[in-house]
Phospholipase/Carboxylesterase (Botrimarina colliarenosi), 255 residues
Amino acid sequence: MPRVPSVVAKTSFKSTPHSLVPTSTVPYSESRRSVPAEWAWSEATAAPAVDPTTATFAPLGYESGYQYPLLVWLHGDGANEQTLPQVMRHISVRNFVATAPRGVDGVASAFGWRQNADSIDAAEDAVFDAIEATGERFSLHPRRVFLAGSGSGGSMAMRIALRHPGRFAGVATLDGALPTSDALLCRVNELRELPMLLSACKQSPAYSEPQVCRDLSLLHSAGCSVAIRQYPGDDDLTTTMLADLNRWAMGIVCG
């Protein structure tokens, strides 16, 4: 199963207009054509970082009159916010405006998301600041903000969404276990209205199948709406996972 490369994607490309991809295409149309990520990045509205530690992604053929869903992406350990273009290439180059704050904790030569009080508070600030800043620059639907992440970023995404369920249209973790303690389900009535996605490979060393089952059981016992995706192998993040994240989120948007 193809893995998402760990290298940072190119941040600028030579513009390559293409008549087969009209900019008037309806942003979330199921009939749109697949296009290379290079076109998305070159033809989209320029989207420099909101600040030095936050990256943004503008969809191909951005239309200011349409309220886009926003995808907030939390990278895994050892990565940073500059992986956002590579991630969006495999999620969708049209469906979302996206933003990615940098992990609040240094991990080796990169960044991550630790589960301690100070890091959780800092992560929440980073996420909500990124949402606010992106909303000032792009046309966004206020009720279609999705929070997703990989590895420790997925765990932090779940933590933040469970603490603030009314702020998100859905939350997804890819190879990141549900965090523990801190009264995760204290807002259980609101959580029942929050769609969730748990994704992992069956032999994942970071998010084992038994742990996925325990997390699923806990969330189901609280009456939460949970979708689960499991994949063969032991990869941490794959292109199939990202494509399924797009389908899950757009099912909510178009539902």
The chain has one domain: 37-254. The chain has seven helices and nine strands. The domain at 37-254 is CATH 3.40.50.1820 (Rossmann fold). The longest strand covers residues 140-150.
